[in-house]
Known about the structure:
The chain has a 22-stranded antiparallel beta barrel. The protein has a six-stranded mixed β-sheet with strand order 1-2-8-9-6-7, with no helix packed on it. Residues 1-48 have low confidence and may be disordered. The protein has helices at 11-26, 79-83, 470-474, 486-489; strands at residues 57-59, 62-65, 89-92, 100-103, 106-107, 111-115, 118-119, 142-147, 161-166, 176-186, 190-201, 204-215, 218-219, 225-226, 230-241, 247-260, 268-283, 290-307, 324-342, 346-365, 376-394, 398-413, 417-418, 427-428, 435-450, 455-466, 493-505, 509-531, 534-555, 561-574, 588-596, 600-609, 619-620, 633-643, 648-655, 689-697. The protein has 698 residues and is mainly beta. The longest helix is centred in the N-terminal third of the chain and has 16 residues, at 11-26.
Amino acid sequence: xxIPCCPAIRSSCLFVAIAAALASPFALALEAAPADATPDAxxxxxxxxxxxxxxxxxxxxxxxxxPKLPRQPVPASDGADYLKTIPGFTAxxxxxxxxxxxxxxxxxxxxNLLTNDGAMPGACxxxxxxxxxxxxxxxxxxxxxxKGPQTVLWGPGASAGTVRFERDRxxxxxxxxxxxxxxxxxxxxxxxQVVDATYGAPLGYARISANRSESGDYDDGNGDRVGSAxxxxxxxxxxxxxxxEDTLLELGIGIGDGQARYATRGxxxxxxxxxxxxxxxxxxxxxxxxxAFEASVFHNVADHVMDNYSLRxxxxxxxxxxxxxxxVERSTSGGRAAATWRGAAFELVTGIDAQDSRHRRxxxxxxxxxxxxxxxxxxxxxxxxLFAEGTWFQxxxxxxxxxxxxxxxxxxxxxxxxxxxxxxxxxxxxxAGQSREETLKAGFVRFERDVDKSLSWxxxxxxxERMPDYWELFSANMGPMGFANAFAGLDTEKTTQxxxxxxxxxxxxxxxxxxxxxxxxxxIQFRYMDTMMGATSxxxxxxxxTSGAELGGEYRASExxxxxxxxxxxxxxxxxxxxxxxxxxxxxxxxTADWNNGSWSAGALVRIVDGQDRVADGYGNVVGQDIGPSxxxxxxxxxGGYSFASGVQLTAGVDNLFDRAYSEHLNLxxxxxxxxxxxxxxxNEPGRTFWLRxxxxx
Length: 698
């Protein structure tokens, strides 16, 4: 596929197709629905637990849970911590908030992170503000995860998986008020409030979702203070027009801001300003082969400030003895249009999506001096993709699911200079003003079989090609050997992966297992080195292989009791050198026990993590690197609650009951500004933590 437009794909080319697709069916919104039409089926998932301690798949390779329910351990204010209840997920620990999610050891743009079908990549060159930093999870209705390259519906390059935070959209046959809210308090000054209010009527609805979250620095199990405080707020408004039960036009507006201290970094995040705008159209129960159509456009802006003086005092003996700040901004626009076709034995989704992203920056020495500096655009990214994904039903028990997509991706290097090694001046950029384009291919095929009403299995193989992202092209000091920089020399990453699994649902016992094996050509890897010129980083391509498995089960001993457990293991290898892949999480197991009689509830969570000795010192990603083997640990968390008939829900818990001092393997080294030694030392997790939450649903 090619795009007949200029060297770099221009925005006008990107959105013309979507605008045309949106316009053609818009007239259908004005037509009355057939008299015998039925409303679109809404999400039906059984969320009967008062406190979520683990999650299980709802179908092959798909997990779905409600972010509105309280979770244990009590999550931070970002989306990454919510993902950790799904086996296979971990996070690069960043302090108290804004961890970077990792699935099966894969990180960054290998995970497609979406909110209401829109992308909002962060702006920090070191991913201080990754996409999950701008998400207030409890204001969403569903968290949906698809593992592996087993869908093509939601954008290119998602070799590890796709994560979607979604809000429900409903048709209200009569005037209706809905209200949900919660308040949480806990150790270290934890203080959260959430409100979600909706008024709906046959003509449309208005929904306001807002939250505020803050916490002070926590103490680890040794009683040592860890710089980790945060304060955030978010507010979102959705206005929907529903001329009939099968038609929707929704306008969305969102804003937010925050700040966070980082014991692992030389700077803190003093601003996480976001603004989101979206427009969405849906038409269901259409006559003919095409039975549903949806289209959406969005414009998201992340305006992020990092400094060493707002939340800490500059260290006169450190690398940055004077006050300084960096302001970065990522503006991302995009859209998607998809049609659903149904026949007697098939369902097919076809569509187009596009994205345009601009990154700019400014910096200054001195307090707030950056405000007087001009903005400099250093990078542009654009993508246009076509996709099709379908299911072919073979009787009632078997089905083939397959999909394919093609993308034309472009990047432009706007840097006039590039940073040298630490302590050395910037140098002229040999690729200034240059652009590159790539055609990316992806596809998968999967077979699913229901052996009987209780047992099913699946096997699928998928392939995806990924464009190097902003951090891989622009953050490292050096590119592959023999190239001027990463922009000129870094190749696209190609992943081919086999996924297999088995799921059993019985009267008293549910169990599942999923396993995978992948081959990654031109895997993108960072290397960190200390040279005579100072500390430097290099990014290059290697060939890798990955494998692993997750399994879990739940036993319902009685109507009130449930016992569960899960296990997750990931392994990676550099095929060129034989070294382990860096930043791979260790073996992790969870054991849960829950009692719930309808009003009262109690639960326990034991988390057991093995030590990790398969490391590649000095290798990693743009955020972290392997800093040696890590020790294993185990923690115990307890919770209890009562659900009132009025809709009020009271829950309380204690995490890390025995006040263990421990650290996660995926971690950043403590920064000298907080008293950590020059040798890399992982920061510890919170010590014993108490929390109390009150929730209300009307």
